[in-house]
Design a protein that fits this description.
Helix content: over 70%
Number of strands: 0
Number of helices: 11
Amino acid sequence: MDPLQLQNLVTVVGAVLAVAGLGGGAWLTGAELRLRALRRSRLAPGAVVVAAPRRKGGAVGEQLMGTIRRLGQQSAVRDPARLSVLRNQLMQAGYFNREAPVVYLGVKAAAMAAATLGVVLLLPMLVGGKGGMGGVAAAGVLSGLAVLGPEQVLKARRQSREREYADGFPDLLDLLVASVEAGLSLDAAVTRVTEELERRYPNLTIHLRMLVLELRAGRARKDAWTSLADRLGTEDARALATMLRQAEEMGTSLGETLTVFSQDMRAKRMLRAEEKALALSAKLTVPLILFIFPCLLGSLMLPAAARLMSAFSHP
């Protein structure tokens, strides 16, 4: 089979796949619309249903989200053991909705489908040699975005929030110590600290509010703090939950325990700052060698080279 026939075959296969995908999407949209109409008719028999005015593109967005949810549910059914781990990761990234794991899996499946369709449409260019390295690069970019894009976005959100949690924990402990030593209970101190940290650390405040609601609902203190540590996903939060549980079991003074733990957190924060400062010289080595040293060498050698050229040019 010559390259022209292979190109025609790949084009036909890509067109068939594209038409099949569009047909499947239209069929799913029609089935969803019929199901919603049937539900409305069952809920309000004999009543006149007046549709509320929707914004432009609202129906399309709802249909797209429904398709993503169905794809995510299929992925969740194939690997149900991963849902708990994925739910913890999404909570650490700031996604607290119950449907967040399903939507995330659906987005990954939709990204893979879109990348596959894009690579199939690029195959005629690659086979015919028209695209060259540009087509190969485009196919590689599409594949990389589909495979690594959602995970990298989730990882970036988790890392940014973990940095905020690490910066806010020493301040949280200092305020807790001041509140407890002033005569407040630990639960009342958490409520007061949540109000104080709202502007400086908004993401940390969300978890503290959830902790306050759990304590008000009657959940055990050690379980509530352990749940907070799981949601934050940081070592400082786990150490604080363990310390509070041990202090409650052994009956030690809560104010003294929090004071010692706060000093330890401050020392760790200072050590991290010193570590970054000491690592700066090593990180500057590569830019110095690649950019600054050639410029310095050129500025020092060019006058000498010019004098040598002028000296050798005149006999």
